[in-house]
Amino acid sequence: MLSLIASLHVLGIKAKERFLSDEKGATAVEYGIMVALIAVVIIVAVTLLGGNLKTMFNNVANQVPTTA
């Protein structure tokens, strides 16, 4: 457990140095983080709205007249 805490501490220090350095432009790491966060938002939105959308489409489908 202590090695995990030490590893996270070192990772935090390296991340702090990277963000505070004078580099310009985004790297693949920053783009990867942005894509991951967007994916999480999409998954949460679909999970929360999925049931409501299914109900809405079922109501619309039930109101459409069928031909004999």
Describe the structure.
This protein is mainly α and 68 residues long. The protein has one domain (1-63). Helix content is 81%, strand content 0%. It is built from two helices and no strands. The protein has helices at 2-20, 28-63. The chain is elongated and about 70 Å long. The model has no long low-confidence stretch (mean pLDDT 82). InterPro entries: Flp_Fap (IPR007047). It holds the Pfam family Flp_Fap. This is Pilus assembly protein.
Q: Short summary of the structure?
A:
This protein is an all-alpha fold and 68 residues long. The chain is 81% helix and 0% strand. The longest helix has 36 residues, at 28-63.
List the helices and strands and how they pair.
Blueprint: H1 2-20, H2 28-63
Keywords:
68 residues, mainly alpha, 2 helices, 0% strand, elongated
Number of distinct beta strands: 0
Shape: elongated
Percent of residues in β-strands: under 5%
Reported for the largest beta sheet, the result is: none
